[in-house]
Design a protein that fits this description.
The chain has about 375 residues and is α/β, with parallel strands linked by helices. The protein has a domain of about 210 residues: 3-Layer(aba) Sandwich (Rossmann fold), CATH 3.40.50.300. The protein is built from 10 helices and 12 strands. Helix 3 packs parallel to helix 5. The longest helix has 18 residues. The protein is globular and about 70 Å long. The structure holds adenosine-5'-diphosphate (ADP), iron/sulfur cluster and magnesium ion.
């Protein structure tokens, strides 16, 4: 898959979000220690993640394995209950539990298309079922199924409708999984690493299908990936996660051309080849922290080549480094304020509302720009 020769994505759209997440938090309680000494400790998988999904746009969540991407997507789908934060659908608090009124609007596509389809059932069954459950498709279910297959470019539909999942290629199976999600006429599609288990040669086709659904059907799409090159190709906005937190958000071209956070810079340095089949290797640059025993201050500080004394003592605020571009890093805080915060321990109560002093225009400097 070559992503370099293709058009760059459009710029983010300023419109009210269909689905919004505010300060999501998820702790998994896991056993630590041996036998009699074992105790349950919280693993802080997601901590304070906020995002907005807008109709007709793709938002990518990028990060290494274990950074909390899937957990965020599963919370948005209400597959996992929230331990903190809130979800808003069209600006209103999302309903409690996981009612059909919600799941019909917010659908998830999983990483492994083979595991997500039932091997004993034909494709027809997979697509008829959601139509029946949600009372959709009208009188002619066969025609509705054929229409779904066409919408994901499985044509002619009669070649696929009576097949079993194992008779299809990985890419075709993922198209069926996407068709199944589309069956209930969702407004939000949460695609969790939808191409990472597919052959490199067919990944671009699935990414283009998602782009098509964004443009043609005006879906709000969350694209979860470890591959920042594909995020740049597909998404208008990229959100970078590290150890359960968002460390940088920006329009995708801006973020990949001018990464402000050292972790984003590391991710980009490990992603020189968009044709790679394997996840990027950050070997040699340390490992993500144990989420049950997080480093103090900036969670990235043990790996950061720019770490300063304050980084291990104080959580960095999220700072605007340019219009629509924020990074949670002390490098982008005015040195005087950094010193004051580090020495006096005086930090603003809410990092999200952190204000730069008027004398320091937000954002203009990137560490590599001198
Ligand atoms: N059901 C679970 N029980 C315990 N730990 C979990 C569970 N699901 C995820 N985790 C842990 O939460 C962290 C984030 O996982 P995940 O969201 O899957 O990350 P990613 O998708 O970025 O690879 C990881 O350390 C993972 O092991
Ligand atoms: S806050 Fe400090 S340790 Fe964290 S990324 Fe920025 S410079 Fe590196
Ligand atoms: Mg995942």
């Amino acid at each position: 898959m070559s992503l370099t020769a293709l058009d760059l994505p459009r710029t983010p759209v300023a419109a009210p979000p269909v689905l919004e997440a505010r300060s999501l938090r998820k702790d998994f309680w896991v056993k630590q220690g041996r036998r009699m000494l074992a105790r349950r400790v919280p693993l802080h998988a997601v901590d304070g993640v906020s995002l907005q999904l807008v109709a007709g746009t793709v938002t990518a969540v990028v990060g290494e394995s274990g950074s909390g991407k899937t957990t965020v997507a599963r919370m948005l789908a209400k597959i996992l209950p929230l331990d903190g934060g809130e979800l808003l659908l069209d600006g209103e608090p999302a309903p409690r539990g996981r009612p059909r009124t919600y799941t019909r609007q917010v659908q998830m596509v999983f990483q492994d298309p083979f595991a997500s389809l039932n091997p004993v059932h034909r494709i027809r069954h997979h697509l008829v079922r959601p139509l029946r459950i949600h009372h959709l498709g009208g009188a002619d279910l066969e025609a509705a199924v054929a229409d779904l297959l066409r919408r994901v470019a499985l044509e002619p539909p009669r070649h696929f409708i009576d097949k079993y999942p194992h008779e299809l290629s990985g890419g075709q199976r993922q198209r069926v999984a996407i068709a199944r999600a589309l069956a209930v006429q969702p407004r939000v599609l949460l695609a969790d690493e939808p191409v990472s288990m597919l052959d490199v040669s067919i990944r671009l086709g699935i990414l283009n299908l998602l782009a098509d659904l964004r443009d043609r059907e005006h879906l709000a799409i969350l694209y979860v990936t470890h591959d920042i090159a594909s995020a740049r190709y597909l998404a208008e906005t990229i959100m970078v996660m590290y150890a359960g937190q968002v460390v940088e958000v920006a329009p995708s071209v801006r973020l990949t051309d001018n990464p402000a956070h050292p972790y984003t810079q590391l991710l980009l340095s490990a992603a020189p080849d968009p044709d790679r089949a394997q996840p990027p290797s950050l070997a040699g640059s340390g490992a993500p922290p144990n989420l049950a025993a997080l480093p103090t201050g900036c969670r990235f500080h043990p790996r950061c080549p720019h770490a300063m004394p304050i980084c291990s003592r104080r959580v960095p605020p999220s700072v605007a480094v340019a219009s629509g571009h924020t990074a949670a890093c002390w490098l982008h805080v005015d040195p005087a304020q950094r010193t004051a915060a580090g020495e006096d321990g005086e930090l603003p109560p809410d990092p999200a509302g952190f204000q730069r002093p008027a004398s320091t225009p937000a954002g203009t400097r990137h560490p590599e720009e001198g």
